[in-house]
Amino acid sequence: MADVLSQGEIDALLSALTTGEMNAEELIKLESEKKVRMYDFKRALRFSKDQIRNLSRIHENYARLLTTYFSARLRSLVQIQVASVEQVPYEEYIRSIPSMTFLNVVEPAPLTGRFLLETNPNIAYAMFDRVLGGRGMSINKIDNLTEIERKILSSLFESMLTSLAEAWSSVIDLQPVSENIEVNPQFLQLVSPNETVVVISLSTSIAETSGYMTLCLPHVVLEEILPKLTNHHWFQEQRGVISEEDAELLNKQVKKTSIDVSAELGRSEITIDEFLQLREGDVITLNQLIDESLQVLVGGEHKFKGQPGLQRDRMAIQVTEVLGGTEDE
């Protein structure tokens, strides 16, 4: 889409042309020149805008689920929300996270490959402190984890995967499993350095401690389900998901719906002048012969043919023929 100038920019441009500061011929020449846009092949954009938006929606739901879970589990005020969703090379992502941090390697069965859930030490130890009954204070210690610390932190990280599976349930029946926990990202080669990954940054605050958690989703892992992340497929799936109980209830409600049924005795065309001259007792000739079947309209559409008569001293019409379509229609 072409850039749209504001009114101020338009006024400034006209003023420059009027005073001679800018030459109209130079503008035309500049516009006709071939424009070159720089493209970095190391930062190939392999996810469409639709896919990024839907990934953002999924993980906004994930953030809400984590907020609810940890608020109850830690008995403290916890706020988690999506800060950003962007696609970058894996190498750039590794350089952007702390040199010592908690890296939970996740196998997202049935997908092939691995996800990466990175938790800043400030957040991890604040969770750890709250679980043990503390105030949620963070400590600067990560290199030497005791067996008890590793066990408690692993339990917290695994509970985060349960919420992740629930957030992804509208797209795929994900069964993520924690493979192991690393602390140095330089020793972890998840995919090739130039592989495009989506990085979801989750802004997290626990009591007085704040920090970030990031989720790294490689393109090669998500590739087989990318068609399900488009808006077309998303809305199509939403329309198609309906239980048998809901379908039966919907069918009952539709059958109770009132609809207009009318019989058309015939038609005629007259001029406006003839219409204005109509008086009581005048006869209008119809295009329908007396021995021909009448058209029966349902909701304004011709659905049946019938013949007029009486039923218990009331005017009625007997259906003699069903016009095109199925019996259900």
How would you characterize this protein structure?
The protein is α+β, with helices and mostly antiparallel strands and 329 residues long. It is built from ten helices and ten strands. The protein folds into three domains: 14-40, no CATH class; 43-239, CheC-like (Chemotaxis protein chec, 3-Layer(aba) Sandwich), CATH 3.40.1550.10; 258-279 and 286-329, Roll (Surface presentation of antigens (SPOA)). The model has no long low-confidence stretch (mean pLDDT 81). A six-stranded antiparallel sheet has the order 1-5-6-3-2-4. The chain has a four-stranded antiparallel sheet with strand order 7-8-9-10, with no helix packed on it. Strand 2 (102-109) and strand 3 (115-119) form a beta hairpin.
Produce a short descriptive summary.
By secondary structure, the protein is α+β, with helices and mostly antiparallel strands. The protein contains ten helices and ten strands.
CATH topology category name of the largest domain: Chemotaxis protein chec
Class based on secondary structure composition and strand pairing: alpha+beta
Sheet with the most strands: spatial strand order: 1-5-6-3-2-4
* Percent of residues in beta strands: 25-35%
| Ends apart, CA distance between termini | 45 Å
CATH architecture of the largest domain: 3-Layer(aba) Sandwich
Mass-distribution shape: elongated
What's the Cα radius of gyration?
Answer: 35 Å
| Major sheet summary line | 6 strands, antiparallel
Number of domains: 3
**Name of the level-1 CATH class of the largest domain:** Alpha Beta
Helices and strands, in N-to-C order?
HHHEHEEHHEEEHHHEHEEE
Figure out the total of helices. Answer: 10
Report helical residue fraction. 25-40%
CATH superfamily heading of the largest domain: CheC-like
Q: On the 0-100 scale, what is the average pLDDT?
A: 81
Number of strands: 10
**Low-confidence segments:** none
Protein name: Flagellar motor switch protein FliM
Keywords: Bacterial flagellum, Cell membrane, Cell projection, Chemotaxis, Cilium, Flagellar rotation, Flagellum, Membrane
InterPro entries: CheC-like_sf, Flag_FliM, FliN-like_C, SpoA-like_sf
Pfam family, one: FliMN_C
